[in-house]
Amino acid sequence: MKKGRMKIHKEGRWILLGVFVILVVINLMVYFEFSQLIWFVNILLSLVTFMFFTYFFRNPSRPGDIDDPSLIIAPADGTVVVVEPTVEHEYFKDKRIQISIFMSVFNVHANWYPIAGTVKYTKHHNGRYLAAYLPKSSTENERTTVVIESPMKTQVLVRQIAGLLARRIVTYAVPSKACHLNEHLGFIKFGSRVDIFLPLDAEVYVTHGEKTVGNETIIARLNE
């Protein structure tokens, strides 16, 4: 898998511009009102702040070459916090295998489609902003649900969940849209989680506490 150069995600470009302008204004005010030492310290803090926002909105190029339509690829960077059968209440309304990936503020926050196919369902839910690693965040936090149907007609549900700091979920999926691996499903801003619901006969390859790399780590195989 060939790596490309790092880019800034489109969801962060205007935010970075706004942060840059605010920091410049603050530094000018400090320059005229305080001593050079305080101004110097403020410049250092401003650089660290801007570097953090730049790092957060990084958009690594990860072109994959997986051609097995039964494989489920991790939709996000992070840590697996749930691997268990559970009832999915919104769409399937039956028991599925749930795999949840928690993203800290230090992870890449772009989300990828975990499988190629057709988007069958999308819905955004307003909600709370509990810590994303808590189990009830899957049903109580602000979230967006996306259901993808594979070429073999197996359906997979992906749920983007806002976290304690997150205040915006961006979803590019729309019903009837064809989706592909290597394509972004969306983006979640500042600390969050992604749940995947699979059929009970899916073969799971990840365990609790394992790290995932979005668009690279194979997390499961569908029994198609």
TrEMBL record:
This is Phosphatidylserine decarboxylase proenzyme. Pfam families: PS_Dcarbxylase. The active site is at S192 (schiff-base intermediate with substrate). GO terms for biological process: phosphatidylethanolamine biosynthetic process. Binds 1 pyruvoyl group covalently per subunit. Catalyzes the formation of phosphatidylethanolamine (PtdEtn) from phosphatidylserine (PtdSer). Its main location: membrane. Its cofactor is pyruvate. GO terms for molecular function: phosphatidylserine decarboxylase activity. One of its GO terms (cellular component) is plasma membrane. Is synthesized initially as an inactive proenzyme. Formation of the active enzyme involves a self-maturation process in which the active site pyruvoyl group is generated from an internal serine residue via an autocatalytic post-translational modification. Two non-identical subunits are generated from the proenzyme in this reaction, and the pyruvate is formed at the N-terminus of the alpha chain, which is derived from the carboxyl end of the proenzyme. It comes from Paludibacter jiangxiensis. The lineage of its organism: Bacteria, Pseudomonadati, Bacteroidota, Bacteroidia, Bacteroidales.
